[in-house]
C-alpha cells in the first residue's frame, strides 16, 4: 500500500482559527497513526487577502501545539516549494494542458458583462447563477488574436451539462452533485494567479496526498476537484469532510460570538495540551465517553470512522474544565517554567523567587486553579506580604484574645529548627492544647495573618511554603495592623 500522506493547507489570514487547528490536528493524527506523512502547505494565492507575518505566525502556533509536520515551508521535502505563490509556473503549465484538451477555456468577458449577466439571471430566477459559456464559442484564431492584443482574460473550467459527479466521503458516504448546478469555475485569474481549486488539486496530486481531510465548508468545491482529477487523468485522493463547528445556540461558530483564534486562547493562558484535547473532541470520539487525552493517546485512538457528520458544539466550559484537569495532572517541574512565564508578565517580574520556593507555591496551589496565572491572582500573598486583610474575616475570626494566641504560636515557631509540615502542625496543636481552645480558633486568624484572606491552601502548606521567618514576620505584622472589632449587637 502507498504511504499515507495528509496535508493542512491553510490560507494565511493572520491567525489560526480553532476550526483550522482541528483540521490540522485530524490530519496530523491520521498521518501519525498510520505511519504516514503530514504536510503543511500554504495556500496564499489570493493576493487581496495577503497579511504580513501571517505564515510565520501560523507556523509558530502549529509548533506551539506540537503539531510538527514532515514537509512544509521551513522543513522542505521532495515536493516543494510548499508555498503556492512560489509555484505559479506549475499551475500555468497545468491549466494550459486542460485548455489544449478542451476541458478549460479562455474567457475575456469584462466585469461589466458578467455583472449584467448575473443581473439578468437573478431577474429570471434561474435555479443556479452561472457563467453562460459565452467565450467557449470563440474560435482558436479569435482566442489567439485576443491574447496577442493583450486582452485581459481568465481561464475557466468547462463543466459539462447534465452529468452527475459522484464521490465517496469517508465521513459522509456517497455524495452526488448535479453538474447543472456548478458554475464554470475560474481556474486562472487575470492576475496570473491560480484560484484555490486549481492550485489545490494540482498540489494535492503533485505532493502525492492520499487523504484530503478538511472542513465541511469545502464539500461543495469537491465536485469541481473531482472533475479536475478526471480531466488531468489523475488518481483521486480519498476525501473526508469534517463537521461544522457550532456555537452553543447551534449557529455557525463565528468571531462575533467569542474567540476563534488559537493565539487568543494561548494568550489567555490555556495550555496547549488542553486545547489539543478539547479540539480533538470537536466531532470525534473513540466510541466511549472518555474525555481526557494526551496527544500521544489521541494518535493511538484516532480514526476517521470515529468522526461524526453532525455539527460539533464548541463548549467553552469543557475547555476550561480540561485546562484545570491538565494542570492538575502536570508535574510541579513541568508547571515551573509556565509559572515563571506568568511572573514575567506580572508586576512581580523584577523580583527573584527561587525555583525551590516557586515549586512549593505550585504544590500548594495546583489543585485550586484552572489557569497557571491564577497562582498569582488567587494567591498573590506568595509573592508579596498581605497588603490588606479581608474585612469580613476580621469580623468573624479576629477576637480580642487572638493577638495573645498568636504570640504564643510565634514563641512556639521560634523554637523550631528547619521545620517540616508536621512540625508546624505539632507546634500549633501544642499551643491549642495549652490554651485549651480548638485549633480552629488559631487556624482562622493565622490564615488571615499569613495571607490576608480567608481561603487558600491548607494552613500547614501555607506555613511550610512561606517558611518560618516569613510566617513569623507576617504574624507580627498582623498583630500590629489588625484592630479587633467589637461584634455587632443588634
Ligand atoms: N486553503 C483552504 C483553506 O484555507 C484549504 C481547503 C482544503 O483543505 O482544501 O482552508
Q: Assign the CATH architecture of the largest domain.
A: 3-Layer(aba) Sandwich
Low-pLDDT regions: none
The residue fraction in helices comes out at: 40-55%
Could you tell me which ligands this complex binds, including any ions or cofactors? glutamic acid
Determine the N-to-C terminus distance: 85 Å
Task: State the fourth-level CATH superfamily of the largest domain.
Answer: HUPs
In spatial order, strands of the major sheet run 3-4-7
How would you sum up this structure, described in words?
This protein is mostly helical and 490 residues long. It has helices at residues 18-33, 54-64, 88-101, 111-124, 140-148, 196-206, 222-232, 262-267, 272-280, 295-301, 316-329, 332-345, 355-365, 374-378, 391-397, 402-414, 421-435, 440-451, 459-466, 468-481; strands spanning 5-8, 37-40, 104-107, 154-157, 164-169, 173-178, 186-188, 211-215, 238-242, 245-246, 312-313. The protein has a three-stranded antiparallel sheet. Strands 1-2 form a two-stranded parallel sheet. It has a two-stranded antiparallel sheet with strand order 5-6. Strand 5 (164-169) and strand 6 (173-178) form a beta hairpin. The longest helix has 16 residues, at 18-33. The chain is elongated, with a radius of gyration of 33 Å. The model has no long low-confidence stretch (mean pLDDT 95). The structure holds glutamic acid. Glutamic acid binds at residues 9-11, 43, 196, 200, 214, 218.
